[in-house]
Amino acid sequence: MAALLKQSARLGLSGRHGQVFCRLPWALSFQRYMFNANKKILVEMDKSTGVALMKMANPPVNLLNLETLTEFAISMEKLELDKDCKGLILTSSLSKVFTAGLDIMEMCGKSPEHVTEFWRAVQEMWLKLYGSNLVTIAAINGFSPGAGCLMALACDYRIMADNVKYSIGLNETQLGIVAPFWLVTRELRPSLFS
Ligand SMILES: CCC/C=C/C(=O)SCCNC(=O)CCNC(=O)[C@H](O)C(C)(C)COP(=O)([O-])OP(=O)([O-])OC[C@H]1O[C@@H](n2cnc3c(N)ncnc32)[C@H](O)[C@@H]1OP(=O)([O-])[O-]
């Protein structure tokens, strides 16, 4: 994946929003930094390649709760502000789960205010990823139901571990959750709305 990004940079390929890559100056080579606010989202930025590796790290199944979604949005903002960052690989620190999707406990028995705040954070996560100027790659290294699939769809490229046990898909209707309109209109059935 890093090689894919490097190759894109060498060929001068454009990102989704017309961003053109260029080689990094020698002075920045081999520089790395890491950040994580609450350790649910780990980011390792390699300035020599311009590629950031972002790992979801919320065991046991990387649930996307309000805290994790907020941390994700902040991490994306930091990377967007880093002029050296050209690409992002989004993956999981867990061995067999990319993410189990939205934490359904955030929608169960909670106040309307909390649920509103939670869904706003879900939309913000999608906006940050889908609207990113970075070249984004989802490295799906395990199960990826519901919002895990949404995250993968929001990236420019998706690569999934070659294991028949792992599944990916939008299964939220089985839980009585309707896919948000912005997901349907922008990614699933765009031709219907253009
Ligand atoms: C598209 C836009 C809308 C999106 C909607 C969604 O994302 S809707 C969501 C769509 N997502 C799904 O439908 C995911 C369904 N989950 C799965 O398919 C499996 O958990 C797995 C295959 C991801 C991992 O299998 P595994 O054998 O490695 O792990 P395990 O199964 O033993 O789980 C460990 C613990 O996590 C708990 N927990 C899990 N998920 C959720 C959740 N979403 N929430 C809360 N809790 C959840 C589980 O109950 C258990 O708790 P316990 O008993 O320890 O207190």
TrEMBL record:
Keyword annotations from UniProtKB, A to Z: Acetylation, Fatty acid metabolism, Isomerase, Lipid metabolism, Mitochondrion, Transit peptide
Pathway: Lipid metabolism; fatty acid beta-oxidation
Catalyzed reactions per annotation: (3Z)-dodecenoyl-CoA = (2E)-dodecenoyl-CoA; (3Z)-octenoyl-CoA = (2E)-octenoyl-CoA; a (3E)-enoyl-CoA = a 4-saturated (2E)-enoyl-CoA; (3Z)-decenoyl-CoA = (2E)-decenoyl-CoA
GO cellular component, one term: mitochondrial matrix
GO MF, one annotated term: delta(3)-delta(2)-enoyl-CoA isomerase activity
Recorded superkingdom: Eukaryota
Compartmental location: Mitochondrion matrix
GO process annotations (BP): fatty acid beta-oxidation
InterPro entries: ClpP/crotonase-like_dom_sf (IPR029045), Enoyl-CoA_hyd/isom_CS (IPR018376), Enoyl-CoA_hydra/iso (IPR001753)
Main location: mitochondrion
EC number: 5.3.3.8
Known partners and oligomeric status: Homotrimer.
Family per record: Belongs to the enoyl-CoA hydratase/isomerase family.
PANTHER family: ENOYL-COA DELTA ISOMERASE 1, MITOCHONDRIAL, ENOYL-COA HYDRATASE-RELATED
Function of the protein: Key enzyme of fatty acid beta-oxidation. Able to isomerize both 3-cis (3Z) and 3-trans (3E) double bonds into the 2-trans (2E) form in a range of enoyl-CoA species, with a preference for (3Z)-enoyl-CoAs over (3E)-enoyl-CoAs. The catalytic efficiency of this enzyme is not affected by the fatty acyl chain length.
Protein name, per record: Enoyl-CoA delta isomerase 1, mitochondrial
